[in-house]
Records
---
Amino acid sequence: MATSSISRPERETRDSVVIRFAGDSGDGMQVTGSQFTLETALAGSDFSTFPDFPAEIRAPTGTTFGVSAFQIHFGGGDVMTPGDAVDVLVAMNPAALTVELRDLKVGGTVIVDSAAFNERNLSKAGYARNPLDDDSLARYQVLKFDITKLTADAVKPHGLSSREAHLCRNMWALGLLLWMYGYERTATIEWLNRKFAKKPVIAAANVAAVNAGHAFGETAEMAEHMVGYVVPKAHVQAGRYRTVSGTEGLAWGLVAGLRAAGIEKMVFAGYPITPASALLHTLANLRAYGVVTFQAEDEIAASGAALGASYAGALGVTSSSGPGIALKTEMLGLAIATELPLIVIDSQRAGPSTGMPTKAEQSDLFQAVHGRNADAPLAVLAPTSTADCFDIAIEAVRLATKYMTPVIVLSDGYLAHAAEPWRIPREADLPRFPVTYRTDPEGFHPFLRDPETLARPWVKPGTPQLEHRIGGLERDYDSGHISYDPDNHARMTKARADKIAGIANDIPLQGIALGADHGKLAVVGWGSTFGAIHRAVQIARDESTDVAHIHVRYLSPFPRNLGDLLKRYDRVLVPEMNNGQLVKLLRAEYLIPAESLPKVTGKPFRVTEIAQAIGKIS
Amino acid sequence: MTVTTITDAQLAPKDYASDQEVRWCPGCGDYAILKAVQKACADMGLVRERTVFVSGIGCAARFPYYMSTYGFHTVHGRAPAIATGIKLANPDLDVWVMTGDGDGLSIGGNHMLHVLRRNVDLKIILFNNEIYGLTKGQYSPTSRRGTRSPSTPLGSIENPVSACAFALGAGARFVARSIDTLQAHLIATLKRAHAHRGASFIEILQNCVVFNDAVFDHITGKEVAPEAQVLVEHGKPLVFGKNKEKALRLKPGTIALEVVAATAPDVLVHDETNRPLAQLLAALEPPFPTAMGVLYCSPTESYEHDFYAQKGAALGKGDLDALLNSERTWEVVP
Ligand SMILES: Cc1ncc(C[n+]2csc(CCOP(=O)(O)OP(=O)(O)O)c2C)c(N)n1
Ligand code: SF4
Ligand SMILES: [Mg+2]
């Protein structure tokens, strides 16, 4: 371009940056964020993302409850969380500005589409005056451009309607941000051409918008405001990488687990519920991998179909969120009583009841561990990151099939949608734990136990001479026949408990994520809070605080050294996104005075919140 | 999916009985149903290891324990869901759902609706005793208005559901009715249900001697049966009465049935593929005769068949590495 002769200041270096793209639900902020993520990844930075979309499907345009946001934290170091405070806020309209501004750092940058700050939008967002015209944004670096017009100009040659042109604004903004951090556009352009393969004009217009946004950064005549940055590459293990969301990690992990177990078929049954549906959608495309998906009439039927499939020798998997898991409760009891493998994935969300469907919480821990009638133990696992979702799903398959038990995996709404870079494993390197179905009639009864695991045999209906009946009625330890004998019930209750407790001997000892194996303070977390806790502990340790981070992946049973380990610290602090659940399990199990750090706002922990709590204690 | 039919011709009815002592009340209609099912199994030469009886909870639901096949006694009302999972996992299994009026139409009514509309290849046998037997005699969703029970001491004020009309409304492709004591008819009906691919629904009027004794006597009693039942058979006129002297036909100018002399013109011939006719027959109640037999049979592909026949549906062992490396990847070199 002719104006490229403008002399640009040198790009400044930033260790890490947090950007939040925010706009109307219809402004395409999620795809904008995802594409920015991809270019970040391809440039070799580490990252962590947090999509935050509204509960309403199509909220009226311009409203505050229709704001959709996508946050990405990227940098050269070990990026552990989506970031506490925002460095750059892209606000496509006044509603986005008013909702998201409070997370922007003082001195941070706001990029706005000035054309969207019209009277109508301002009043919908509750602004009496245009914040771009007074000094209310004085604490920030404001970059206001008429993105609407700049986009319209860029796409003009493609003859789009003004509505269609308007929809390209997000790509213009993306182009500008890509320029700002010196990122490529290649993957984005490829993606647009693929996405709009059937609408080449739309594809070309969007590409033109990306290019125009990029060129604008390159050539804008406001050089002192428009600084470009460089973010260093991350130092990560060599290998092939991709981005992975928790949903993808779980889906692929289940497939990998199915293969590891040598089971021919997985029957995944679900009933739509936010934020668990994404898993059903993902698996519905994986028939070629032996996956049968079934959208049942409700969660009860979903858990029933999954259990029926396991009974028939397939891997039964069901998934839901808190309210739906509640409906599966009775079927879990049957799975425990009949000792069949069953995997239940709970994408936890804020509750009780319908609560806040799109907001994450970790408040189903009690439900998972204890939420059934009678003494009904099962295994509970929780992934620590989106990448860990893959490994935990494999582990769930291993435990469910080896111990003939239901296994609940506690994911959450944050993990389901968040994305991180992931070093792609090779199938050849994955674990193998082939199951054996019983076929030998000699000495058979359905509740014969493996002396080591206490698991009963798995028999596929269709196997000659092993015909037998099972059900929810108590059964005799020695014959498997119905029995109401009091001593037998006590013996069976103990057998069921011992079997689950015995899993503790078959899982890794509890490790320490950071710090020493004894000392003044251990911060103990579980699930998706890993990043925030880890970073907070890192910061405290850098300031010479005696603190360690312990993250529990196995919540039932606990690793067998967990109690002894925790007793080696003077104090134990348990941050969790609930009103104090793990903390109570730890107190009950180990009689230690663990202290709670609850957070129930529907938002993930900030590093600073945990860091402050550590500061107060130590 | 090809359905291979393997039969075991050597087995007698008793070979389908398990070694478990049957624990229904003496005189319960369930015994007769058990006997009929075992006889039908033997007649059809069902292979025990490929046959699965699935049930919910109730007296009726104890059924699987008494069969020498595979059996799964599950939770109240949910047998259709569990059976659906079994069929999705292994469509080759011969799966029967044994349920009661409470199990199948109250707590499990929703599952019954959906399993029928999906047309999962199952034999669904509903033991209708118009009462909750196992919980000691409360009224059920099929209990008639006025039924006195521990929970309705003044008589039920609820309108009962007709099992067959419900099944037809849900889109079932095979709907039949029989009676515990009508052995030959019941066995023949069970065989018809078994021959049908897709969900086959049979309502069996079953006498609960303890909590609802004789509730069907006005239909099933030896004396009244000829007048009180019309045994429907495909292609045969809808006649009944001691000497088959009565018949059903459409009341001229309406879509209601009327009773006429068997010799009258326009007597209806049963067409089991005619759904509206089946609806009319299913809904008949005294003073009309109650319709027994296959009210409706109009096969279509089953749910599992369609699932596995769907384009691009082949289950396989896809390349996992390819899946994990789909979309954008990047290489980090040391
Ligand atoms: C969740 C649940 N609720 C209630 C019960 C108690 N219960 C067992 S059987 C039954 C009714 C059974 O009636 P029906 O299906 O007509 O069978 P019948 O005993 O008459 O053969 C009830 C309410 C139960 N077992 N589980
Ligand atoms: S209670 Fe009624 S239905 Fe149950 S076993 Fe006794 S007679 Fe049969
Ligand atoms: Mg009943």
Note: DSSP finds 20 helices and 22 strands in chain A.
---
Amino acid sequence: MTSDEIKDLILEIIEDIDDEADFASLDADQPLRDQLDLDSMDFLDIVMELRKRHKLQIPEEDYPQLASLNSCATYLEPLLKDA
Amino acid sequence: MPVSFSQLDNSYDVVVIGSGLGGLTTANRLAYCGHKVLILEHHHRLGGLSTWFKRRGHIFDISLHGFPYGMVKTCKKYWNKEIMQSIVQLPHIVFDNPQFSLRTTFDKIDFTKLLKTHFRISGEVIDKFFATVAKMNFYDDQTMTTRELFERFFPGRSDVHRLLMEPITYANGSTLDDPAITYGIVFSNFMNKGVFTFEGGTDKLIGMMTDELEKNGVTICARAKVDKVITEQGRVRGVSVHGKTITAKAVVSNSGITNTIQNLTDRDLYSDEFYEKAEKIRVNTSSCQVYLGIRQGEKIDDVGDLLFTSKSPEFDSEELLDMKTKSKTFSIYYPKTRPGSDQYTVVASMNSRYDDWAHLDEETYQMEKQSLIARSITDLEKYLPGVSTKIDWSEAATPRTFNSYTLHTRGTSFGTKFEGLDISRSISKEVAGLFHVGSVGIIMSGWLGAINYGVIVANDVDVFLKS
Ligand SMILES: Cc1cc2nc3c(=O)[nH]c(=O)nc-3n(C[C@H](O)[C@H](O)[C@H](O)COP(=O)(O)OP(=O)(O)OC[C@H]3O[C@@H](n4cnc5c(N)ncnc54)[C@H](O)[C@@H]3O)c2cc1C
């Protein structure tokens, strides 16, 4: 997956969590949590969904790497390079 | 429909012991992740404490008094939209005690107004208090108690302490001496938008959840009490139930954490350090309830949905637990609870100690139950004059009742004190494949807490099964 595909994947997962999420003014460098009103349960959903869809095991200590859209892409790119 | 015991397979990916909201949610999430899941429930009915019973045309709900708005998002994400759409607000919350009588929607906006106008607290202090509790997290400092939190913001104001504490004591059995974070998290959840309920009643909710579980391929078997978790070389192998072994790669116990460690598993599975910590877990207090059915065709006035009433001069956790407490909440169920029905019921709830009831001989026990019913009706008369002539069914439940239906240690209504959370979270490090879900640590209890905890534990189990 390319970096852009990964960002689309994350947004798609977030949309499943909250179908009213508004991505129009999303800043890819800023924390998703504040911009989209995500809580820790939502982040757990993202991790579970990545495991379900791509068999990705993300250790708990790496959760902070999923903070912004860009940091997600940077962290996940090597893990999803063959996906 | 739940299947009969003889139809069960010999092997599943996961066995969930118990069908409380935590167990049901873990099962549902694990099925969603692709695992073959079996739920075994000791009672004939699913739901655990989230339950109901029928008498003479009345349906009595046990734990449908109110939950925070967070249930909307949680039910939508982890159950389905139909369940979410049945969640409605309980708009009229009433307080009546010797210190104050008022009506509120029990949310931040209304509480801010009340604290200003009724209790004469400055806006600045109120804002700071709300900001402080809203920031609280379960990994924060636990040394500050709720009493200290209240003294910091509202020194000497026992009336304000009562307003802030009494509902939360009923909601989760916590006291002024528990860590302030357990108060702050639960209180903030409610203050978000007020108190909500499930339209259609507990029976409808559990029915909808059962349908969803079956749609997702979960096998459910009631009247199946698990006697033991079976292990081999420190790893889970399955469970023993009605003399049969059912194997599983993982076992999730929704039985109480103290039960799970002391009754369902052997001592030698655990390290000394873990076991000693587990032995020190304090379970929360239990409850008494009085169920009153209003005769078909009779009506009662709308005097509020949830009434926190007391004749005790001040809030006092010990007084709330007394067998003859002067404090109780009344949940009044109007026909709107189950649209289409014309039934009215009232449930009086009190916090209670197991030890006060456990050792009474049968005759005294029955007598105490009758006087509990009589006191509840007398107290209710203040809000609904003449109601006693309209009641055609009355019945009481005590800590003994809760113990016998759920098997919970000392009939605990709200799981354990804070230390139970750590033990529940770390049991899988002691015994590979063994997990616990269910009310622990005060914050993981209540309908919302139990469901969200079910999701957290399902994630752990999924990681385990896929690694
Ligand atoms: C009187 C009362 C009023 C309440 N009011 C509210 C309220 O208004 N709002 C709110 O949010 N919360 C309320 N609660 C709390 C809420 O009901 C609970 O926190 C929540 O339902 C607990 O879910 P749980 O997952 O911990 O499991 P539980 O509901 O405790 O269920 C555990 C299940 O495991 C089963 N089990 C145990 N051992 C075995 C075994 N060996 N084999 C098979 N099955 C076993 C039991 O039979 C039970 O079904 C109330 C509780 C009580 C008692």
Note: The interface with chain A takes residues 29, 32-34, 73-74, 77, 452, 455-456, 458-459, 462-463, 466-467 of chain B (CB under 8 Å).
